[in-house]
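# step 3/5: fold
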Amino acid sequence: MKYLLPTACACIAIIGFTAKPPDEPELRLVFTGDIRGYLSPCGCSKPQIGGVLRMAGVVRALKKQPNTVYADLGNWTMAAGRQDELKADALAEVFRSLDPDALNIGALDAKLGRDLLIALNESTNSRFISSNFAVGYENRIVMRDGALLTTIIGLMPDSEAERYGALRKTSRQAMASSNADILLFAGSFDEAKALIDETSYAGLVIFSQSGDPTNAPIQYKMATLVSPGDKGRFVGYIERKNGKWTNLRTISLGPEHFDDEDAHMAYHAYLERVSSEKLLEAIPRTNELGYVGSDACTSCHTDAHAIWIETKHANALETLEKTGNDRDPECVGCHVVGLNAISGFRSRTLTPSKADVGCESCHGPGDRHLSMPYEPYGKAGEASCLPCHNADHSPGFDFKTYWEKIKH
């Protein structure tokens, strides 16, 4: 018997190690969505949250847990032009590296055009799903170790699928022929509730929501609803235990999260394309405003210039040069003088006195003031700051506090 006891103990230890813990969820879902073109956090107040580099790192870490599914709700960009097409290409590279189980198509994705969506789907290893928009698969059956883990269906509002000319079937028809326990619905909360009313859906619904994510699961009839918020600032995580969706977490993508290496490469390849395609040079400009540059102000306003030169405004463009965003039209406007005017900033080489946040960024174009110096001229105030110091770029902006740093 003395030889059998160690063997018996060893068997017990093995069984204890391999058995599923009693509170282990049968399914973990990681979800993102409504990035809407916010590939990187942008602003001068700290800490900034968001960005696909951090998002990818968090998603990759969460996916290491057993029985984990990853899905994105859609609406990658604002679909407003060439720059958003480049963003979509970059996001496709990021998603391909993350190997998602399902990528839903939102109305903003549909706006990019069917041909581009087909190409993006190929770039993501055919992970697109939509039951009512005719690109990608209608749903996704997720298997793990040869067993069914979950089924996911993707939808946008039928009106949006019709608008872009690719309605595959109505949402009601799609739901009637599906037994999916996860619905990616790129529509509002009210639209999601209306769909639940119409179909008696009883699973988990990920829906679109502007602003912050849901901080707790919302129960509506037999369905559970959650949202990741918008602009790529959060990653959502929820578990299913004993058939119930629980333990919702919305992970804020602050600076404590490391950048993902693959996403970093995709993002900087995107910035190189923005620069090489000269998108900054292509922005529309008006000839109604006459900017003269900060150097023209120095001879008369020596005291104000001496204060300005010591502020962060005087080195605003350098912050973009350090990150590679100095040819990005979406960033440069708040770091230079008069980007949208023919007389405004072109490059540090061509228009050096219009680089950085200069006098005319706040006071307005100075050509008339030069010719009529005693006439009233743009008095700066809080309204001068708000176009750039808005909620997205400067959360918590307080004019009185910031003014003390640049007062002159």
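# step 4/5: annotate
The chain has two domains: 21-270, 285-406.
# step 5/5: archive (pending)
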